[in-house]
Write a structure and sequence with these properties.
Number of helices: 8
Largest sheet: 4 strands, parallel
Distance between the termini: 66 Å
Order of helices and strands: HHHEEHEHEHEHEH
Bound molecules: zinc ion
Strand content: 5-15%
Number of strands: 6
Number of domains: 2
Structural class: alpha/beta
CATH class of the largest domain: Alpha Beta
Length: about 200
């Protein structure tokens, strides 16, 4: 828009690229930043720049970590925590999924695939962090791999691929159950979810 100064417009365009932010919200946020004091703006820009320069990924699970120049081991807090359940590893698509799982009280380790298999988008097995998962399994006491990928075609293909690779190994491979949402009523559940609930039914007596 010509009526908006270019510097402000650049920020608005950047903000609209954030998830859930439309043009209107981006304009409001840009004006907020413009009217903020210079110290806040300076810190904010440094913090954003640090995301690019001071963060890396855990060499074990591929989760994001702060770069520690004094350490030769680049492991995340979770991988370094020996009090966790070392017998189970939960396989996730992206590092941000870890935050969601941590809220559930899950106490095992994680492995981030970085992607899901999707030939239509040109994403194949070699684009996923599967080799490092196999390496971890061969060098650890892990007894169970819990595949927690999305309930989608890509999630299913990825889960199937990993379970096939591990077919001959002693490691147990599990997947998240699919079923009724907590507090949901049967009449509002779609047919696919209900069918999965029947397939994944559990014994209560
Ligand atoms: Zn890690």
């Amino acid at each position: 828009m010509d009526s908006i100064p270019k510097t402000l417009e650049n920020i608005i365009v950047d903000l609209t690229k954030l998830p859930g932010i439309g043009r209107r919200t981006a304009e409001r946020l840009a004006i907020f930043l413009l009217e903020s004091n210079s110290e806040y703006l300076k810190n904010f820009s440094i913090n954003i720049n640090d995301l690019n320069e001071k963060m890396s990924e855990c060499e074990k699970c591929h989760c994001f970590i702060d770069i520690d120049e004094n350490s030769t081991i680049n492991e995340c807090v979770i991988c370094s925590d020996e009090s966790r359940n070392s017998k189970i590893v939960c396989v996730l698509k992206k590092a941000s999924d870890v935050i969601i799982f941590e809220r559930t009280g899950y106490n095992g380790y994680y492995h981030i695939l970085g992607n899901l298999i999707s030939p239509i988008d040109g994403i194949n097995e070699e684009d996923l962090n599967i080799d490092s998962l196999l390496l971890r399994l061969s060098n650890s006491h892990i007894k169970e791999v819990l595949i927690a990928t999305d309930a989608s075609i890509e999630g299913d293909s990825t889960a199937l691929y990993i379970s096939n690779i591990l077919k001959e190994s002693d490691v147990k491979v599990t997947r998240l159950a699919r079923g009724l949402p907590i507090g949901g009523t049967i009449e509002h559940v779609d047919q696919t979810t209900l069918s999965s609930s029947i397939d994944d039914r559990i014994e209560i007596k």
